[in-house]
Write a structure and sequence with these properties.
By secondary structure, the chain is mainly alpha-helical. The protein has two domains: 110 residues, no CATH class; 146 residues, no CATH class. The chain is built from ten helices and two strands; from the N terminus they run αααααββααααα. It has a two-stranded antiparallel ribbon. Helix 4 runs parallel beside helix 6 and helix 5 packs antiparallel against helix 6. The chain is flat, with a radius of gyration of 24 Å. The termini are far apart.
Length: 274
Amino acid sequence: MTSDRRQRSSGARHAARGHCRIAYRPGNSVLHRLHPLVKALWLLWGTVFVFIVSDPKVVVIVLGLALASFSWAGLPLLQVRGMRLFITTALVLGLLQVIFVREGAVLLEAGLLRVTLAGLASGIYVAGRFLCVILLSYLFVMTTDPNDLAYSLMRVGLPYRYGFALITALRLAPVFEQEGQIVYNAQLARGVRYDVRGLRQAPRRFLTLARQFFLPLLVSALSKVDALAVSMEGRCFGKYPSRTFLREVHPSRMDWLAIILLGMGLFVTVMLKV
């Protein structure tokens, strides 16, 4: 009973924190108004850039710009689900670099622990690069409407069937996440224990819990997919080779300015690589 109360209270605290899902959040910022393909190119360039540069200072600058972009776009960074886990992972990666890289000048030495300048720089570089990739991806997902993204891809030649598949995947991912949370809370209320103790019981208990959790989630997913398929057939989806859209996305002056800045960034990247 004590363990069940602890699990229920933990689930209630998690729900009360107000963690927002990793999905599109409407807004009126510059990032929200940019063309989806322009943002996709910026995401691709930013990801490649942090892997090309080898200077930790540059990675820290990119990380600072990504953090400022969240505030600029009005997005709650710390309330995004999974962000604390990624921050902890980045700290662990950086700490491992600090501990095991022992080249360069010694900054601190205590027994077997030796912190060097090269190890500290490597830790900042690895942790910052990891966070940069995560934050840039989050910015793209949370400021880009899936419908606008699919329409933009269709305008450049993507068949609309694949565009609809992309929209469906982006739309249903938060729904399945919410369904999983409902199943988890319902099973906690029915006395299902998720805390596994003992190494001998762990594999069997894990398989049992996985079956109990994923079976109702799979049933719910299949019912939603079946309803979606019936709805698509009723609307004659796929009958015509092309389709029209209620809202069209066209490049603006801001998009062209972003493309010019991206070209300058590509030039700087090539120069750094050369």
